[in-house]
Design goal:
337 residues; alpha+beta; 60s Ribosomal Protein L30, Chain: A; Phosphoribosyl-aminoimidazole Synthetase, Chain A, domain 2; 5-stranded mixed β-sheet; 11 helices
């Protein structure tokens, strides 16, 4: 993929779209994290670690973002709760933590019990997939705050890991292998840009995905993969040194977060098949390669850093669908070859 990044405006039909043009500034978000870290050192990982005896409690919190807009438009509410759970449990499992419990927050102008039940059913399903308990939550009615028929979601998960079993990336060295676990689609990041692309394309959510076998709405609403069980299984086999959850920031920002200073990633461009949905998004939005790689997961939702020996074992066993997508190299950042 090209390392060039477009800063052109998307004003007018046919312009090259960027995430920033769609209203999301990843650099601003990174700057905020940098400032917060000055006030609360230790912040910045995928999950927050709190010492408890010989273990750490690991916590993560998130929402679903503007994917909710598509839920309102498509009427698909049964799986959005899976996305909500996934965004938190996938973060905390990067430390090697087993999720213990999840709490949700559901806010709306006027409570529609049938609609809320559909959403919460998805949350329960997500907890079952990640083998954690839905411990509780909060339902808030806020008249005039949200549009009629709309709602907002957030939640957080807490897990636990022994202190001597934490996956922290400190032992990563040049030559280690990057193993990618496939995504189900866009997951829950980049939807502000997706919606801008959709508007520019002239297609509707009911139209078939060009080159695909489902509608655009169905493809975009595919729930986020919950990686907990497969990641914990791979960790149990040993030799997992670091794990990156590929969310906002894509490969570009997320993979380097698990590396010691002075190390970077070399990604093999042809090592996995980029899903049709991303190819359509890029073509319809005329989006630069570098912008795609920093906004979307491009078909890889989780990256594990393992030893060369472990990579062969993982790939040869074939118990989990996985790809050898690159290696750790000297020098910082992410490059493609």
């Amino acid at each position: 993929m090209s390392k060039e990044n477009s800063s052109k405006s998307c004003d007018g039909a046919g312009g090259r779209l960027t995430y920033k043009d769609a209203g999301v500034d990843i650099d601003a978000g990174s700057e905020l994290i940098r400032r917060i870290a000055k006030m609360a050192p230790g912040i910045g990982g995928f999950g927050g670690l709190f010492p408890l005896g010989d273990s750490y409690l690991v916590a993560g919190t998130d929402g679903v973002g503007t994917k909710l807009k598509l839920a309102f438009e498509t009427g698909i509410h049964e799986t959005i709760g899976i996305d909500l759970v996934a965004m938190s449990v996938n973060d905390i499992v990067t430390s090697g933590a087993k999720p213990l419990f999840f709490l949700d927050y559901y806010a709306t102008s006027r409570l529609n019990v049938d609609l809320a039940e559909k959403v919460i059913k998805g949350i329960v399903g997500g907890c079952q997939q990640s083998d954690c308990t839905l411990l509780g939550g909060e339902t808030a009615e806020m008249p005039d705050f949200y549009a009629e028929g709309e709602y907002d979601l957030s939640g957080f998960a807490v897990g636990i890991v022994k202190k001597d079993s934490v996956i922290d990336g400190k032992n990563i060295v040049a030559g280690d292998v990057l193993i990618g676990l496939p995504s189900s689609g866009v997951h829950s990041n980049g939807f502000s840009l997706v919606r801008r692309v959709l508007a520019q394309s002239g297609l509707s959510l009911n139209d078939q995905l060009p080159g695909g076998s489902v509608s655009l709405g169905e493809a975009l609403m595919a729930p986020t993969v919950i990686y907990v069980k497969q990641v914990l299984d791979l960790i149990s086999k040993g030799c997992v040194k670091g794990i990156a959850h590929i969310t906002g920031g894509g490969f570009t920002d997320n993979i380097p977060r698990v590396f010691p200073k002075g190390l970077g990633a070399s990604i093999y461009k042809e090592s996995w098949e980029v899903p049709t949905l991303f190819k359509w998004i890029q073509e319809a939005g005329r989006i630069e390669d570098a912008e795609m790689s920093r906004t979307f997961n491009m078909g890889i939702g989780m990256v594990l850093v393992v030893t060369e020996e472990a990579s062969h074992k993982i790939l040869e066993e074939g118990q989990h669908k996985a790809y050898r997508i690159g290696e750790v190299v000297c020098g910082e950042g992410v490059r493609y070859c």
